């Protein structure tokens, strides 16, 4: 089960065992800049990015950017150890879809976080607590539930919503959704990036199930359901239809 | 209700299954009055389309009467007599808005599967594998129709089921195949395959003003039907179609070639044998025999239009001929919704009566026999219509 979580192609980590040189350090800073430009809409893909934490970058952007540079490339000792041992289990997924609707409509539907469980099938509910804070409840097997509080740390109307789980969450996670007008009359490009760090121990199995064995597919599925809801007003389904025996 | 279900290669049965119910606000339930077996169903019957599951309800050519409506369907009412396009399309996405209905972004619940196969997902289809949505089909007493507010077309009482049923698929399919040829007044169009799709491609090419239509098959009654439509026919078992086509076009080759055969083409030489073996061993998912001939025969700068269905990969695609003869290749599942109204008008005005292709009328219970007869081309079978 732990195997499943630590999963796949998400991290391009390759030189993790190599000693940290100045060059690596520089790469860390560049990564942060590239992260920032990804979030802001400059860069297209995150492939190859090694910057450790989306959460950190989101916080940095919210807090004014540059201040964060110093800290990203400076890993804590436990981080270094777990990376060296190949235990780094961050899962990061990026997916983009074009939706044939105006930015305003898509942004405002998403900004009401309580709508998210309609198209993110792994979520049971989201309850907004105030302007920026919300309580998330995810479906988990064996009557286990995973819950956490999240905070919107950056909110640019019709452009960007970025959130992160609060510090003591069982499953540290963060994400952002970016809305950008598509060329011509093609609607809006919606990019979602989600990152989470599955914990060890008892929760691991539940989380593996929870976030699926194919995180890419799960985020892709959520986005295509979002698109269906916005464009077609309903989510295509065959669940509950007749079948022979 | 009774429904025709797929249970494996060459195994279709009439099962009793629960009646369909409304699952989404834009759904309708239709009581099926007529449904047909399509050449595309034969690819399922012969086991060439992946992701079928035992018990899947078949059928994508069907019409009937509205019996129940989801709360968002405002343009239909109970009792309306409707024809249903085989492409399931939302009406609101980029592709639907551009009249490219078979490419709808929002109707395939298993889009991720199709994305793995094709890069992107086409529209969901009725009764045509889980890769294309896993929707229950209409060879049944009742069927659920998604996006019923944009798909179905009401048909006037004075036209019989048999006259309008083929608006669901094969008439628009033959028509789009011909339209893709961009036919000019002096053009010769060659059509491989004189099955139902080929027959409508022939008639459509004539409607669009082709000077000459040449039709290729080996089944006598199918060639005879094509001849009656005004085509000049070639039996590919008697003459080499490549040579014959050159002779009949002053050496130039047909201006446009239509492959209305698809992935189960029958081959007469060694390539045909190799393809059959490869397909049986799944090294190749189609036997592109007619397609290769069409590409080789087509005049320089001409168009090859492919309504014939291919599911996956083919070998020995003569890309060299495509490039060096500067051919245009056009294909696609039919954008059925685009053609419903204009072709219904043609039927209404008496320009064509599509029922000419029907050779067999059976009850739903006889579907297993219908599949076999149609596949084996026994008893002069060209098109089977089932009445639930
Ligand atoms: N694009 C679409 O949306 C669409 C819609 C409907 C059907 N189709 C496809 O169109 C094709 C034809 O459908 P149909 O209902 O007419 O099927 P069919 O099986 O009745 O007809 C195929 C015909 O091709 C002939 N044939 C076989 N090998 C040949 C060869 N080498 N040269 C010439 N003719 C050959 C057969 O004898 C037969 O008459 C199928 O592949 C079907 O899946 C596509
Ligand atoms: Zn068909
Ligand atoms: Zn659509």
UniProtKB/TrEMBL annotation, chain A:
Residues 99-223 form the Coenzyme Q-binding protein COQ10 START domain. InterPro entries: COQ10_START (IPR005031), ORF3 (IPR047137), START-like_dom_sf (IPR023393). Gene3D superfamilies: 3.30.530.20. Signal peptide: none annotated. Residues 1-10 have a biased composition (Polar residues). Residues 1-29 are annotated as: Disordered. Residues 11-29 have a biased composition (Basic and acidic residues). This is Putative integral membrane protein. It comes from Phormidesmis priestleyi Ana.
UniProtKB/TrEMBL annotation, chain B:
It comes from the Bacteria. Keywords: Metal-binding, Oxidoreductase, Zinc. SUPFAM superfamilies: GroES-like (SSF50129), NAD(P)-binding Rossmann-fold domains (SSF51735). Residues 25-153 form the Alcohol dehydrogenase-like N-terminal domain. InterPro entries: ADH-like_C, ADH-like_N, ADH_Zn_CS, GroES-like_sf, NAD(P)-bd_dom_sf. Residues 196-264 form the Alcohol dehydrogenase-like C-terminal domain. Its cofactor is Zn(2+). GO terms for molecular function: oxidoreductase activity; zinc ion binding. PROSITE patterns: ADH_ZINC. PANTHER family: DEHYDROGENASE, ZINC-CONTAINING, PUTATIVE (AFU_ORTHOLOGUE AFUA_2G02810)-RELATED, ZINC-TYPE ALCOHOL DEHYDROGENASE-LIKE. Belongs to the zinc-containing alcohol dehydrogenase family. This is Zn-dependent dehydrogenase. It comes from Phormidesmis priestleyi Ana.
């Amino acid at each position: 089960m732990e195997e499943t979580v630590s999963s796949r192609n998400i991290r391009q980590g390759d030189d993790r065992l190599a000693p940290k040189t100045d060059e690596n350090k520089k790469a860390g800073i560049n990564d942060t800049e590239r992260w920032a430009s990804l979030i802001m809409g400059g860069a297209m893909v995150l492939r190859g990015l090694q910057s450790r934490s989306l959460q950190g970058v989101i916080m940095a952007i919210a807090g004014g950017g540059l201040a964060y540079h110093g800290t990203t490339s400076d890993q804590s000792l436990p981080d270094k150890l777990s990376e060296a041992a190949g235990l780094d289990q961050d899962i990061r997924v990026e997916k983009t879809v074009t939706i044939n609707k105006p930015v305003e409509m898509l942004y405002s539907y998403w900004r009401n976080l309580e709508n998210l469980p309609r198209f993110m099938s792994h979520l049971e509910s989201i309850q907004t607590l105030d302007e920026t804070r919300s309580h998330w409840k995810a479906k988990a097997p064996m009557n286990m539930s995973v819950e956490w509080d999240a905070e919107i740390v950056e909110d640019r109307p019709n452009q960007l919503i970025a959130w992160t789980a609060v510090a003591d969450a069982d499953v540290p996670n963060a994400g952002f959704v970016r809305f950008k007008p598509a060329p011509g009359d093609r609607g809006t490009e919606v990019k979602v990036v989600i990152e989470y760090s599955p914990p060890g121990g008892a929760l691991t199995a539940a989380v593996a199930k929870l976030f699926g064995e194919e995180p890419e597919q799960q985020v892709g599925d959520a986005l295509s359901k979002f698109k269906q809801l916005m464009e077609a007003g309903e989510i295509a389904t065959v669940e509950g239809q007749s079948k022979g025996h | 209700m009774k429904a025709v279900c797929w249970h494996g290669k060459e195994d279709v049965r009439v099962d009793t299954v629960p009646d369909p119910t409304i699952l989404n606000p834009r759904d309708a339930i239709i009581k099926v009055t007529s449904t047909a077996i399509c050449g595309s169903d034969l690819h399922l019957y012969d086991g060439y389309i992946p992701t079928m599951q035992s018990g899947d309800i078949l059928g994508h050519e069907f019409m009937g009467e509205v019996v129940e409506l989801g709360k968002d369907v405002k343009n239909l009412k109970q009792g309306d007599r409707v024809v249903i396009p085989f492409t399931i399309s939302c009406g609101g996405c980029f592709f639907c808005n551009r009249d490219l209905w078979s490419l709808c972004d929002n109707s395939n619940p298993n889009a991720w599967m199709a994305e793995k196969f094709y890069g992107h997902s086409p529209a969901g289809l009725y009764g045509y594998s889980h890769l294309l949505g896993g929707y229950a089909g209409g060879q049944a007493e009742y069927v659920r129709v998604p996006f019923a507010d944009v798909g179905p077309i009401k048909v006037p009482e004075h036209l019989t089921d048999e006259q309008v049923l083929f608006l669901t698929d094969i008439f628009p399919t033959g028509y789009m195949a011909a339209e893709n040829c961009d036919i000019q007044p002096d053009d010769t169009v060659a059509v491989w395959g004189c099955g139902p799709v080929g027959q409508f491609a022939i008639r459509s090419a004539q409607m669009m003003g082709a000077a000459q239509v040449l039709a290729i098959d080996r089944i006598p009654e199918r060639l005879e039907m094509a001849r009656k439509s005004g085509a000049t026919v070639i039996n590919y078992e008697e003459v080499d179609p490549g040579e014959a086509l050159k002779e009949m076009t002053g050496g130039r080759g047909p201006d446009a070639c239509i492959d209305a055969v698809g992935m189960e083409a029958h081959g007469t030489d060694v390539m045909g044998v190799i393809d059959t073996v490869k397909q049986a061993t799944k090294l190749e998912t189609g036997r592109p025999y007619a397609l290769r001939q069409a590409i080789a025969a087509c005049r320089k700068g001409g168009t090859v239009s492919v309504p014939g269905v291919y599911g996956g990969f083919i070998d020995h695609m003569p890309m060299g001929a495509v490039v060096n003869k500067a051919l245009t290749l056009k294909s696609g599942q039919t954008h059925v919704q685009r053609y419903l109204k204009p072709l219904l008008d043609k039927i209404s005005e008496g320009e064509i009566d599509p029922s000419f292709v029907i050779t067999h009328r059976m009850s739903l219970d006889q579907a297993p026999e219908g599949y076999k007869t149609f596949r084996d081309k026994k008893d002069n079978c060209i098109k089977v219509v089932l009445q639930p």
